Automatic annotation (TrEMBL):
PANTHER family: CYTOCHROME C-TYPE BIOGENESIS PROTEIN CCMH. Residues 267-295 are annotated as: Disordered. Residues 134-261 form the Cytochrome c-type biogenesis protein H TPR domain. It comes from Mesorhizobium hungaricum. Keywords: Cytochrome c-type biogenesis, Membrane, Repeat, TPR repeat, Transmembrane, Transmembrane helix. This is C-type cytochrome biogenesis protein CcmI.
């Protein structure tokens, strides 16, 4: 009942705040018109007296009388005015008032059908005090954030919150949480691999050099960690080292338990690699390169990079090919060519395309920008 009383008072106040100015303006307008009409009538009387005393010529008196009559007509009142102009302002005022009154009436009618005025309020403090089993994910995150605001050195709290951030797509927050957990609670393979996954997702799927270092740190703690191995295989694929990526994925597939959730991801990655044309060196080329001198090996690599560049000119819609080319030029310490490849790749897909954003993020991990 209290809700309806408060709602009625607020509705009345809001309606009066709009209606009173409308009513006041109409009264002010009518009062002003009446005053002007009285002035014009006095002018007509004065004009007749001047004409009777011979102070003004008949022709001039007639012109002045016509001008005063025109002013009276413009007021929308008086004996010479038509009825319609005088009723229009009143009609507009009535329509405005009706519209103002209709809004709260319609709102009340709709709310009475679909609203829940008897539903008890749910303050944040009470929601955070609920049993965690009865709380939503947002409430659990808010509870954890409130706790960590008061206790920022709670490594266990950061360790719990980090994978939740990762699951709900808050990747920068996940990176921060994982770093805090590692700093406060120590390194583990799971924390390092989680940090790397958050970094990869935050970069649009690109495995940066920093993320690779994090995954390698996870493998030092747990050599069979599936997450770290999977993303390092992805990094090899992004670098154009397809044979190595496939070999790593096949090794994972053979060693993973049958009930491992990573078996499906590895199978999909192998299928994708099988359908993707090879853009890097073959196994024979790799073996041949290992037996060459440094100068000959560099020449061979440059030849393969030039071949990749030529393939991209013929098939420019290969997004992964552009990333391999950018990285290859960066590895060869040719930053100008790497930036040129970045600009060319962006131009192919458009500056606002997802591919262009991915190229830019990937180049950023190599210390490159398109405008440098």
């Amino acid at each position: 009942m209290l809700f309806w009383v408060i709602a009625a008072v607020l509705t009345l106040g809001a309606s009066l705040a709009v209606l009173l100015p409308l009513a006041g303006s109409a009264k002010e307008r009518d009062s002003q018109d009446a005053h002007d009409l009285e002035v014009y009538r006095d002018q007509l009387s004065e004009l007749d007296r001047d004409l009777a005393r011979g102070l003004i010529q008949p022709v001039e008196a007639e012109q002045a009388r016509a001008e005063i009559a025109r002013r009276i007509i413009r007021l929308g009142t008086g004996e010479t005015a038509a009825a319609a102009p005088g009723t229009m302002p009143k009609l507009a005022g009535l329509l405005s008032m009706a519209a103002v009154l209709a809004v709260p009436l319609l709102s009340w009618g709709i709310y009475s059908r679909i609203g829940s005025p008897d539903l008890p309020s749910q303050p944040l403090a009470e929601r955070l005090a609920k049993n965690p089993a009865d709380s939503s994910v947002d409430e659990l995150v808010a509870r954890a954030e409130a706790h960590l605001t008061k206790n920022p050195s709670d490594g266990r709290g950061w360790d719990v919150l980090a994978p939740i951030y990762l699951r709900i797509g808050r990747f920068p927050d996940a990176v921060t949480a994982y770093r805090n957990a590692i700093r406060l609670a120590g390194e583990t393979a799971a924390r390092q691999a989680g940090l790397g996954e958050a970094m990869v997702n935050g970069a649009g799927g690109v495995v940066s050099a920093e993320a690779q270092a994090v995954f390698e740190a996870a493998l030092k703690l747990e050599p069979a960690n599936p997450k770290a191995n999977f993303y390092l295989a992805l990094a090899l694929s992004q670098e154009g080292r397809k044979p190595e990526a496939v070999a790593m994925l096949q090794k994972m597939q053979a060693s993973l338990p049958q009930d491992s959730p990573w078996r499906r991801a590895v199978g999909q990655a192998l299928a994708a690699e099988g359908s993707r044309p090879a853009a890097g060196p073959s196994e024979d080329q790799v073996a041949a390169a290992s037996s060459l001198s440094d100068e000959d090996r560099s020449a061979m690599i440059e030849t393969m990079v030039a071949g990749l560049d030529e393939k991209l000119k013929q098939n420019p819609r290969d997004a992964e090919g552009w990333m391999r080319l950018i990285r290859s030029y960066a590895v060869l310490r040719k930053p100008d060519e790497a930036r040129a490849a970045l600009r060319r790749g962006i131009a192919v897909f458009g500056a606002d395309s997802p591919e262009a954003k991915q190229f830019t993020a990937f180049a950023g991990t190599l210390g490159l920008t398109a405008t440098e």
